[in-house]
Model the fold of this input.
Amino acid sequence: MVNRRKLLRYALIPLIAILVFWWGGFLYFKGSNDWQEIRALLATDRAIRAEVGEVKEISVAPIPFMYRFSGDYAKATLRVTVIGSKGEHSGTIDAERRSGRWILSP
Done:
């Protein structure tokens, strides 16, 4: 039988550390210029505007969430919800920043 001390040391502490690191990354991303740029890109996207109409609100969910960056390159996989004048749409998007400019991946 596994004792409590081993369970804490080998399972719970690493799990808590991973969750804190991941949640911190999510909160960092939500406050970043990158999120603001992606929001602006989504708000002006023709396909999204055709689906929801005039964009009123865009939100990002913590799951799934992936954000990697290195220098001038960044990549994000996000679950977003866009609310507009004609309705609401949720979906997962992939976006990349190359040479300082974000683009939505097909």
The helical segments are 4-30, 33-44, 46-52.
